[in-house]
Amino acid sequence: MWKAFQTACAIVFALGVRVGAQPAAAIDCGPMPYDCAVAQVQRREFAIAIRTLEQVLAKAPRDLKALNLIGIALTNADQADAANARFREALAIDPRFTPARKNLAINEFNLGRLADAQRHFDEVLTQTGLASKARRLVGELAHGDQRAAEIAMALALRPRLLLLDEPTAGMGDQETYEITQLIRRLHRQASFTIVLIEHDMRVVFHLADRISVLDQGALIAEGTPDEIAANDAVQAAYLGKAA
């Protein structure tokens, strides 16, 4: 499972731009300095791009795109700490700004800061009930634990929203109960927002705060579990009616 976590990190790492040499000559960017800096980065003229973007930020210090781009240029100029400072400036302005978050994560990984990743990995194993099985191959685990490992791989990327497609498919009663408890625990204790697609109505009614019901691709009902249980269309399609 640690190998799977490292693979996920390596995928993120592959999104980075590699280090290149800098030409000495400066370029006059005219009235569109940011676009000019983009071209400089694409040509791997990182030192020149840094100077161009510093001019942009002197006039517009809250320009998120410029902060992110100068962070990329600094990274490729072997100034990772300065780059991270720029990425954090962007995140202080807007914590949702995905490019800065991604590039900060890449830099921290590249700098060898794996201690945080290991701590997060241990937390994820504890959350998913797999801590005692951390040294086992995923293929050796029971079906329910394999599903928990899949959820753990998603949690390793620090999401705010989990999308789960039939998480209890093919499971017996005990495994279904365990995965259901895991999902409920993630929602209640870790405050994850979870969107769940599931055909087992017992699981749906046990977990969901709000339910949308589809029949042959058409939305036939939405509401709370009690409202859905009492809905005639849902009973006809899924639950059946008492004789």
Structure overview:
The chain has 243 residues and is mainly α. It folds into two domains: 17-110, Alpha Horseshoe (Serine Threonine Protein Phosphatase 5, Tetratricopeptide repeat); 117-208, Rossmann fold (3-Layer(aba) Sandwich), CATH 3.40.50. The chain is built from twelve helices and four strands. A two-stranded parallel ribbon has the order 1-2. Strand 1 (161-165), helix 9 and strand 2 (193-197) form a beta-alpha-beta unit. Helix 3 (46-59) runs antiparallel to helix 4 (64-76), helix 4 (64-76) packs antiparallel against helix 5 (80-93) and helix 5 (80-93) runs antiparallel to helix 6. The longest helix has 17 residues, at 173-189. The radius of gyration is 24 Å and the shape is elongated. 23% of the residues are buried.
